[in-house]
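*** Protein under study ***
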Amino acid sequence: MFELSGEHIVLVGALLLFVAVMAGKVAYRFGAPALLLFLGVGMLFGWDFISFNSPELTQFIGMVALCIILFSGGMDTQMQEIRPIIGPGLVLATIGVVMTALILASFVYLVAPWLGFELTFPMALLLAATMSSTDSASVFSILRSKKQGLREKLRPMLELESGSNDPMAYMLTLLMISVVANGGGNVGIGSNLFYVVVQLVMGALMGYLIGRAAVWSINRINLENTSLYSVLLLAFIFFSFSFTDLVHGNGYLAVYISGLVVGNHRITQKRTLMVFFDGFTWLMQIVMFLMLGLLVNTRELIQPEVLILGGMVGFFMICLARPLAVFLCLAPFRSFSTKARCFIAWVGLRGAVPILFALYPVVEELPHADLLFNVVFLSTIISLLIQGTTVSGMANLLGLSFEEREASFEVNMREDMTAGMTEVEVNEQMLQSGRTLKEITLPENTLVMMIYRDNDYFVPQGKTELRVGDKLLVITDRKEELATTYREMGIDEVMKHH
């Protein structure tokens, strides 16, 4: 067994990252969640090569990683997209988490004694609480690799739910750890409800205020070295989490809302920041999954009673707990078809967060903490294997997917530019008045900058003959007039560049 210490850490870390990235490439090819293979790489190296047993360090790294992941998720979420589905999304992220935990806890409490585990209901609820949040990163990485879009506003719906349900699961987990540590006594419903409300209100308030402070600072600090904007934003992320936690708010909720605020305001170097955090988020996810894989004791994981309980919990979550919670939560909302509800129920993937939250009882040295961690770990693997590999097929089966069009032009515009840049495809209706560019009626102050045709790019002239299927990159000062012109030409799909 190789001891992970000293100068060997950098070498082993580099090797693990390289193998993980190669595993991610394999995952894309076979339509499997890349994070599952990252976890597998960690388990493989932890089986016989590397000795690593530090739940405290893993918990700390996981906390840092989750802050980055949640902030990046909020930053990528556009308010105009989630506004129509904010109601059902927040219901799933709050009430849905509680329902899922209660349903799963009841099941665990009933079946655990059959396998020789005497778990109290608070302990069963603690196990269920750690597993009550979902991970959309795996879902959308698969859909992007398959170039699949989702109908019925399902993408923003799932992004909102998974981005905002981790804080609720975190609160439930801490609450149940407190209850179990106190021997299950003195469970004051009123005081616990007050605790949850304070955590949510303070988390949302501090997240908004710190997000606005970040926007104000970035736009006014005027750094000559543009690379330092990323460092400044990182400081705001960690300040958002730690300060909110200090004033008894939910730090993870604050981080997500801060990201939402920053992502939906104009800020200096926004494109550079988005690219930086996209790459950094992947690094954090890889590191977190590798460390969790290294930490797990595979020999304990494959004990028959653990395998059986973990398998039963995993399948119950997929087949009953998640679907029941989804259908109950979405019952008041009529905007989703039955097929859409089925898809939402199916893609409730468990990711790194349940395993990370399952470390908290281990660090607190609660009874049955190792069993809880192993069951959650095994259930997560089952979720990623079964649900993760069938995301694309389920979307096709339910008729909810469509081929997502890729942008032909990659353009970065300054945030302070008022001109709008769009990409459209030439159709027959556009060519009714003539086939050359000068015969196409466009608003004033509008210019076709470039044409993409047959894998080739060229700058057009007035005499350039257009063909159906050509992709045009258009810039204008008259955005509303151009939008009207597109509608008159029968162009429904307009890709905007920012």
